[in-house]
Amino acid sequence: MNKRIKKICSLATVLLMTTSSLSFAADGTIKKDETVYVNLSSAGEVEKIIVSDQIHSDVEGQKVVDSSSLTDIKNVKGEEKPSIDGENIVWELEGNDLFYQGNTDKEIPVEIKVNYYLDGSKIEPSELPGKSGKVKIELETINKEKHQTVINGETKDIYTPFMVASVVILPDDIFSNVEVNSGKIITEGNNQIVTYVSVPGLNELIPEDATDINIPEKLVIEADAEEFELGPIMSVATCELPKIDEEGDLGSISEMIDSADELESASSKLRDGTKTLSDGQTELADNLVKFRAGVVELGQGSTALIDGVSKLDLGIGSAYEGATKVAEGIRLFVDSAGEFGTGAKAFGAGATSFAEKAGEFANGATMLSNGLGKLTSSTKELETGAKTLTGGTDKLIAGEKQITTGVTASLKGVQSLIKAVKQQDPKSPMLATLKQIEAGLKAVEDGSNNMTNELNNFKKGQQKLTAGLGELGKGTDTIKETAGLLQAGSKGLVEGADKLSQSAVQLDTGAKKIVGGSKELVTGSQGVSDGLGKLSEGSKAIMAGKDKLVTGNKELLSATNQLVDGGNRLKDGAKELNVNMNRFHQEGIKELSSVLTEKTESLDDLLLVKDELVKLADEYNSFTGIGKDMEGSVKFIMKTEEIKKVKEAVVSTETEDKEKKGFINWIKGLFGK
């Protein structure tokens, strides 16, 4: 609070010293700026008051109705003459601005008191010129504009808030070892300039329990003086207060209270946060130790990994070669699968045809079985017939033998006859006939012999036939039995052929799928081969980076060790931070919040007082009066009489003349350096 008020005062000093007139806005409003020059004695008593007013209108030649208690009013910068009726003054402006002065004996709202001490004793200023020793100058400002107002049901004395800025110039050739209780000391050339800002009456508004607020009641200057002399002490007073709400960090008191609550809440959260941080940092440090163990294991694992990668690289190379061969084999398989499909299709057709033929075979087997039954019966009949035929053949052979014997006998008889004929008549015609008969009989004899031979052969054939028919009969029985089995087997053959035909269809379907799947297998196997090729390249890249991995593991372990050390230090720091933050919260923020809470009621009163001060400041816009439709401002410039040795009084007069010519400009220049 104390710093805040000091800051307000400092800002006010700057405003007072650098602002000598109103800023006129071009909104048509008539404004009046009043400056009250007050000559004071060396001790601060009022000796003379001169009031200077400036009237400004945005409209040239406007009629202005003013109000003033001044006497001896005169226009100091123009020819306009006022029309005065009591305190009502009417001006007919020729331009936009009018400057006039007048006199008054009205008591000024701020009293200046100056007390002087020499070597610890109070001394009249008239006795000081030329004296040397330890001097003390007390400058006190007193507010005379007191009002009574009711705040929260309590009547309080409140003062129009005049802010007074004072300047004391101490030449270096006279004053040394200068010290002040308040204000600032500025070194300017051969002088030390003491500036001091006060708000008289403000201390009476500060609650008694607000012990932290300490506004000095007066300015106290102490110095070593050699042949004492002192120029005028100049003070400027105004009630134009800086806009507190516009002063950035000043804020409002209520905002300060709210900020204190927020600060306590934030401090509590911060304390909780530091505890969480400490706990988390401890956990982090513990985990960092575990992490370091993991890094060590990682290093060991990376070594094993490198070995594994080496083997993997070899394995991948072999796998790549194998995959390439597999892909090639699969291509061949696919080609074969196509042929297989064609073969399977042909097999299916053959199986179908086989099934059909199997049916025919079954029918043939049935017919064979049936035929064999008849064949067996016929064979037996043939065997019987053959035996009968053999018997007949024996008879034929016997008859043939008789024929042969008869023909042989006949031939011998013919030959005997021929012989006899020849003997009787070699030319007998009968001889030729007998020759023909002889030749015929020989042919018959030969034929009969042949017949006998053929009959014998026939008989032998009949015997074999009979024997064969016997065997045939036995064979046909066996064949019949086998044919029965064949007939029964042919039924199974038909069923098997049907199943074979169905299987052939399924085989054809499967063959088609195999052909289609084999193409995908080719693509997949090629993909595997290509992937293994890339994997092989990758494994080679990994192999190339194994050295970096080893180096990286070493660097990681080194960095982890540093991290663990840092984590331990951070853990200790977090614990210390938590302890200190807890102490800060308990002994600082909570105590501050407690104090502010206890004084909330007083601060609320202060806020109401502040509002009243602002209101009084706004209302005090003139010292001698102002027209009702005018806006005004007023400031007081007060100057004490200088303290000089008698022989230097003339010089003082010259200085006063210079100050009269540019008193405000002199102050501006002084603070502008």
TrEMBL record:
Keywords: Signal
UniProt xrefs under InterPro entries: Serralysin-like_metalloprot_C
Residues spanning the signal sequence: 1-25
Gene3D superfamilies hit by this protein: Methyl-accepting chemotaxis protein
Protein name: Uncharacterized protein
Lineage: Bacteria, Bacillati, Bacillota, Clostridia, Lachnospirales
